[in-house]
Amino acid sequence: KGQGHVEGEKVENPDTGLYYDEYLRQVIDVLETDKHFREKLQTADIEEIKSGKLSRELDLVSHHVRTRLDELKRQEVARLRMLIKAKMDSVQDTGIDHQALLKQFEHLNHQNPDTFEPKDLDMLIKAVSAKYC
């Protein structure tokens, strides 16, 4: 009671209800490990974030951060593919177009499943904005 936020303390955020909530949180956590990006994020207003201006800052983050983001994206694509496979198995329809199914996931660039690029950050921001703004 009466205690404020302590520097370095992890703040628990409520679940957003998005089916990609865990991915969103992991991307934010990794981006915040980069000092330059964290400073840009803290000083950016909502319009800069929604317009994609902040996404361009991704090119300036450290190699380690980009590598971790690439790994997160590959994991998310694998998770989505698993969901698609489970859906396919449940309906036993062999004529399903995998690319068409991936297109329904608007929070990442499905055409490039291996690397996390500024377009991915922009798509993630826009997907969240569409849901909440």
Layout of strands and helices, then pairs:
Blueprint: H1 21-31, H2 35-43, H3 46-51, H4 63-91, H5 98-103, H6 118-132
Tell me the strand percentage band.
under 5%
* End-to-end CA span: 32 Å
Q: Indicate the percent of residues in helices.
A: 55-70%
Number of domains: 1
Radius of gyration: 17 Å
- What do the pLDDT scores average to? 81
- From the spread of the alpha carbons, the general shape counts as globular
Query: H/E series, N to C?
Result: HHHHHH
Contiguous low-pLDDT stretches (5 residues minimum) are 1-11
Number of helices: 6
In total, the number of strands is 0
Tell me the structural class.
mainly alpha
Query: Major sheet, described briefly?
Result: none
Pfam families: NUCB1_N
GO molecular function: calcium ion binding
Organism: Hemiprocne comata
Subcellular location: Cytoplasm; Golgi apparatus; Membrane; Secreted
